[in-house]
Amino acid sequence: MKRTQRGFTLIELMIVIAIMGIVVTSIYPSLLTMITQDRKQNAILRDAAGLTRLFGLFKTELKQPVTVVSADENGVRFSDARAIEVLNGGRAVKVGHAIVRLEGGARCWGFEKIDDRTFSSQINNGPERIRAIWRTGEL
């Protein structure tokens, strides 16, 4: 009777596992780098969407010419009892009844009154710092 061999020998299996270990060890650092970069890019995109929404809400709230009563690191207060408030250390901003959350590295803070109808806001988005100047009653 002829006997046929089935399966792998132990040495063949050990060689395949060793080769897979070498391949995985060489790929792992670059895989971690790619995952980190992907997370950073997703955070930047989420912040860009949040900042776009925030600017749209500012424009909507500021259509009417109202007087800026006060502006500081906590937000802006207007003469008609409306306000823009900074929440959670700048990670969220409340404009009217809407709250915009900045999930990545962006922060909105440092409001400053310029005159009766004008104020500025500071926005940090990673290494970039932006100062936006807003005037009530203008689009």
Q: What is the end-to-end distance?
A: 93 Å
Binned, the helix content reads: 25-40%
Percent strand: 25-35%
Give the strand tally. Answer: 8
- What's the gyration radius in Å? 28 Å
Give unreliable regions as ranges: none
Element order, helices and strands? HEEEEEEEE
Q: Mean pLDDT, rounded to whole units?
A: 88
Q: Please, how many domains?
A: 1
- Which secondary-structure class do the elements indicate? alpha+beta
Count of separate DSSP helical elements:
1
Spatial order of strands in the largest sheet = 1-2-3-4-5
Shape from CA axes?
Answer: rod-shaped
Largest sheet: 5 strands, antiparallel
Give a structural overview.
This protein has 139 residues and is of the alpha+beta class. It has one domain (10-135). Helices cover 37% and strands 35% of the residues. The chain is built from 1 helix and 8 strands. It has one helix spanning 10-61, and strands spanning 68-72, 75-78, 83-87, 92-95, 98-101, 106-115, 118-125, 128-135. The strands form 2 sheets. It has a 5-stranded antiparallel β-sheet with strand order 1-2-3-4-5, with helices on one face. Strands 6-7-8 form a 3-stranded antiparallel β-sheet, with helices on one face. A hairpin with a 2-residue loop joins strand 6 (106-115) and strand 7. The radius of gyration is 28 Å and the shape is rod-shaped. The model has no long low-confidence stretch (mean pLDDT 88).
